[in-house]
TrEMBL record:
Residues 26-296 form the Periplasmic binding protein domain. GO terms for molecular function: carbohydrate binding; metal ion binding. It comes from the Bacteria. CDD domains: PBP1_GGBP (cd01539). It comes from Paraphotobacterium marinum. The keyword Glycoprotein does not apply. Keywords: Calcium, Metal-binding, Periplasm, Signal, Sugar transport, Transport. This is Autoinducer 2-binding periplasmic protein LuxP. It is found in: Periplasm. GO terms for cellular component: outer membrane-bounded periplasmic space. Residues 1-23 form the signal peptide.
Length: 330
């Protein structure tokens, strides 16, 4: 009887040790809390970590300052985090962060801003979670093409050419470059001719995009603008505000699938977006980081495909045809 009691106690102690071992601390840096999409992602990540129960997040805001982010990474490593989850300010800084993580034998999961493949390949515990920016550009082109076909009145000069202005995220940013290129390539692939009236960067900012749109609407070719294309929803909102204030009715298209965009689409202020699936990206980051922190195989019970150390969560085009189902989810 005494032996049995001792065995039970030993079993309980082993269980406690096992539970403790599974607890994971993830050091997270977000490039800028002011970014609408990243703020939404951060909320998803926090909610999922709470549901998981055995995961602690240490969250930091890099305030779009790469130097600050590098300091935060150093501090997180000094605090003994089990794994890093990094939303880079500048993708070129990935090599520096990987070197710091490697020196401390700490895995690192990059998300939203993709490092170079060479950087990922330099460390066996480095991975990336995000979405394929090329796919988002292609899908935005599809959404625009379908809407243009349904609204022949948008072709003001009746010449079959889509006269557009394009608000770009930032020069040199991989997502901005891909979205800018492939949205137009896709329109051409579908047989549409295009004419670029203006293209400028607005750093993913609503306020800066409004300023750009204000300037274009004050220009001599304002009446020629037939479509506004934006690399993200937040900048599209700036264009919507500018158009309203200038009493102009021009279709606007974004990327991200934000709740406010769905409302604008309901109200006829925007005509399409491409859903950047923040919820599934957050789940993938959390599960992958937890696997790596606990020395499990990266793809252990993951639910997402890893190829070349990358997980891509698919985008979804949102137009009038399927808007109702996304309004219901939000």
């Amino acid at each position: 009887m005494k032996l049995k009691k001792m065995t039970v106690i030993a079993g309980l102690c082993a269980g406690l040790i096992s539970t403790s071992t599974l607890a994971t601390t993830i050091g997270v840096t977000i490039y800028d809390y002011k970014d609408n999409f990243m703020n939404k992602f951060r909320n998803d990540l926090t909610a999922d970590a709470k549901l998981q129960g055995d995961t602690k997040l240490i969250l930091t805001d890099s305030q779009n300052d790469q130097g600050k982010q590098l300091d935060q990474v150093q501090t997180l490593l000094a605090r003994g985090v089990d794994v890093l989850a990094i939303n880079l300010v500048d993708p070129k800084a990935a090599k520096t962060i990987i070197r710091k993580a490697k020196q401390n034998n700490v895995p690192v999961v990059f998300f939203n801003k993709k490092p170079s493949q060479a950087a990922l390949d330099s460390y066996d515990k480095a991975y990336y979670v995000g979405a394929d920016a090329k796919q988002s550009g292609i899908m935005q082109g599809d959404v625009i093409a379908d809407a243009w076909k349904k609204h022949p009145s948008w072709d003001k000069d009746k010449n079959g050419v889509i006269n557009y202005v394009l608000i770009k995220g930032e020069m040199g940013h991989p997502d901005a470059e891909a979205r800018t290129k492939f949205v137009i390539d896709e329109l051409h692939k579908k047989g549409y001719k295009t004419k670029q009236l203006h293209l400028d960067t607005a750093d993913w900012s609503t306020a800066k995009a409004k300023d750009k749109m204000d300037a274009w609407l004050a220009g001599p070719d304002a009446d020629q603008i037939e479509v506004v294309i934006s690399n993200n929803d937040a900048m599209a909102w700036g264009a919507v505000t500018s158009l309203k204030q200038n009493h102009k009715n021009i279709p606007v298209f974004g990327i991200d699938g934000m709740k406010q965009t769905f409302k604008y689409m309901q109200d006829g202020k925007m005509y399409g977006t491409v859903l950047n699936d923040d919820k599934n990206q957050a789940k993938a980051v959390l599960k992958l980081a937890t696997n790596l922190a606990n020395d499990k195989a990266a793809d252990d019970n993951l639910g997402y495909t890893i190829q070349d150390k990358v997980i891509y969560v698919p985008y979804v085009g949102v137009s009038d045809d399927n808007l109702s189902q996304y309004i219901a989810k939000n």
